[in-house]
User: Fold this.
Amino acid sequence: MIAISNNIKSDAINEIITNKPSFIVSYGITIFFVVLCFVVAICWCIQYPDIVQAKAKLTSINAPKPVVVNSTGKLVKLFVKENDTVSTNQVIGFVEATGNHEEVLSLNVTIKNILGFIQSNQSQLIENELQTPLNNLGELQSSYQTFTTAFLVYKNYLSKGFYIRKKTMLAVDMVKYKALNKNLYQQKGLSEQDVNLATKNFEANQSLNNDKVIADVEFRNESSKLIGKKLTLPQITSSIINNEMQQNEKVKEIAELENTIAQQKIVFLQAINTFKSQVDEWVKKYVLVAPLSGNIAFATFVQENQQLQQNQILCYVNLQNSVYYAEVNIPQANFGKIADGQKVLLKLPSYPFQEYGAVIGKVDFISHIPTDSGYSAKVLLPNGLHTNYKKVVQFRDGLTASAEIVTKDMRLLQRFYYNFVKK
Assistant:
């Protein structure tokens, strides 16, 4: 029995020992360990940046200014095209109106010239500005007639007008009165000398009369002559006083006339300012002008005879020195990862990322004071509004974007580890 049992065990053991194990059984643990090491190595080598999501809004220093249509009507004339350079107040187009745009613009220039003449005291040049009649001013025609009537009244106070001529005549009278006054003073001086000589003769005759050298009759004649000569002085003095009174009257007339001219100038200035405001309102309503100097960028396709709506944006004027940046509201989650100089990808819903790409920026400033929506940050745009797809985004006020702030690179193994710790 013992021999049979030993024989059976020996056969089983021999079978186990003699049978070669499979490859998986022999190298399974080694293969698993190698694969595990390979996966760990790949997870260690693979790294990509961590991204913090935030909301952003584009803004600008010297932002592009819109050209807004202020009246519903057809675009009867368009003077610019895409990317044209314009200057401040340059005419861009005409909106349909009852008046002639060219005449109204010419009238606007005339009004500015007239105001310049009045301020520089060259009112005599105003009439030259109003030589050409204007008959196609539309709703401004009645106001223009009122203005020209005010000018006709004011014209009497200009250099060739009645009141200026009257002032000139008064000035000539003043010159003559002053010359007459000078002559009277000369007469008075001569009369005083004559009286002094007559007085000396009288005194000499009086001495002779006292000495009984001359008769009383002769002395009385000399006395009468002295009295007669003395009577001329009050007469000349009265003439001088009367002359000075007449001069004062002329001065009063000139002062009253100058005051009247000044008052009429104020009245005409008020009339021209009132008319100017009406013309400016018409120009604002029916003439499209550039608000500043820059390049034209149309908001939509525009052509002449196209119907425009009030408050519609026709185009934008882009300043050549515009500086763009983004205001970003960073949430408190992962806020500690963000630092100055980090790269930011701005993806605008208005310009789909798949087609236009993203605008590249970098964090320039982070506020230390939180708001209700997080911390404010300023993101500079080194390439302006050019995307990484080499396309240009047209700036519009209030344009929003999704900001992806790229923080430091993190390995895939680290991410697994942090997620494991988090769990």
Summary: The CA atoms of residues 331 and 372 lie 9 Å apart. The mean pLDDT is 79.
